[in-house]
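Quick entry between incubations.
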Amino acid sequence: MITVEHLHKTFVTRTGGLLRGTRRTVEAVRDVSFSVARGEVVGYLGPNGAGKSTTIKVLTGLLVPTSGRVDVGGLVPWRDRRRHVARLGAVFGQRTTLWWDLPVRDSLDLLRDVYRVPRERFRQNLAAFTELLDLGPFLGTPARSLSLGQRMRADLAAALLHDPELLFLDEPTVGLDVVAKERIRAFVQHINAERGVTVLLTTHDLTDTERLARRVLIIDHGRLLYDGGLPDLQARFGGARELVVEFESAPTDPAIDGLQLIGAEGPRVTYAFDGAAARPIALVTAHAPVRDIEVREPDVEATIRRIYEDGLLRTDGS
Amino acid sequence: MADLVGGARHHLRLYRRLIGAQIRSQLVYRFAFVLDAAAAALITGTEFVAFALVLPRFGGFNGWSLGEVALLYGMAELAFVLMDLVFGGFDAPTISTHVRTGSFDTFLLRPVPLPLQIFGSDFALRRVTRVALAASILAYGVAGAGVDWTAGAVLLLAASVLGMIAFFGGLFVVGGTLTFWTVDSVEAMNVLTYGGRTLISFPMDIYGTWLRRTFTYLIPAAFLSYFPVLHVLGRPLPDGLPRWAAFLPLVIGPLLLAAAFAFWRVGVRRYHGAGS
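Done. Structure below.
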């Protein structure tokens, strides 16, 4: 569905006037290559300014890259803009495609004409999305009066009415409460499973990624650092598991041979370990009487943060 | 061929629907709409009435009667307001807002020609009061200029209005395109657009020679309505220009508009390169 080879994008920015300003070049994307198969859901992660949105803008045909080859379903996005965008849907969390002062239903009907969706197909899709996203209560409400969650649901419906093969989702759950987030994730899962829509998801919310994407791409400083499954990422960079032990009473010496001591606070002591938990637990219970034990898995969020901050995946040391 | 016709029909229907959406959106705010419409008419109305009241005190206007000036003024105002209605989406502040808020990207993500969406993104219905007023001033001019209205004269002035719409529409497109590079240039464009409009609302022989010549040979604004009106009134063109120069507005307007859209394409290409 998507093939990206050696993508580069360099921006030239001028500061301080057209004539006497200084030119500065910024390499937003450097030698990025990846491919996405039809029907995949791929998470695209990276801190702000890492090159995520530049990549998305190239894939959606908004930006022409400095160099590199991009193929989306047999088309070069920026060469054949209209044919390309007819087959994709895009939802950008920060803005809406809906007409601000018109009822949602009118906006959707205008988009029917924009995408030339046959009336019958439009009717079926609208009915399906109204059911799945519970649009009913606010189809007659102007976009400006919608809550963020409602607007997001309406925008999702708007992006999918023309049966696109490919959906770009940019921060689809940002600013939403837990229930609203869950509803949107379930919908994305549904359209991927039932309609085979390929989804490229950029998000800061790792729960989105964990729930939806089997595969993630991580970009930082314009370079693609990781391309693979989340569990693999966890295994490679997730750091140690933790054993949180509550002793019957505060031990005089919490240190145990063969376990790394992380912290001690009264009877509560935390150790780090690798691999299976059986041996560490045996060591701890042999050390002193224990009231409770908890095994903590390293979480993805901390892993990714560590990757960005410590540059764990960086290859050139820049 | 059938594809092409089908495409054109689709675009036309879409344009009508987009304009319809704009109109319905504006009618949501009825009070603001009425207020805007009244204020817009008031500005045009007072300007011309003040002029009409002052004119007799000076015993005419460089040899021009009020009816003759009304002809020039009404044509310029009508053309400009109609242009503003149709080309409002290309006005520099509108384009730079689209770019800043990201709605320009939203347009680019739809499988419809970009200019069609820009045309369909603004249609300030409140200007209809100004259209009506401009038409009244023009009607007064038509009745009061003492012209024997042959079919040729009517056609020439109609062509002149169309030429002006294309000309000023082109200036709007150029101004909107410039915002892809910088918004600093907008004021300079406004001097040209609004200055040019005001200039050709009155007989150009009241201005100094250099000003009239600048707006004849450098910026061909005098060809738009001044020369056609001179021709209809049976007066000679200045600088010994041949009589056929009065028939040029229908050439000059569309030429400028075509050049403006060529520039627009350069601007959009630049946007695709820089993305901001």
